[in-house]
Amino acid sequence: MIKKFLSNESGATAIEYSLIAAIISVAILSATVSIGSSVNAKMQSASDGLQ
Known about the structure:
Order of helices and strands: HH
Shape: rod-shaped
Mean pLDDT: 87
Radius of gyration: 23 Å
């Protein structure tokens, strides 16, 4: 029973996939924040130009 438990890798695979998903989520979040700041600055510049 212990040998079967130690040779079972399905739990490790699930953890690996969840870590990959977490890394991708952090990358998407940081890119969104960065792009959002850039867009906000450009919109503010355009608004100032119209006034």
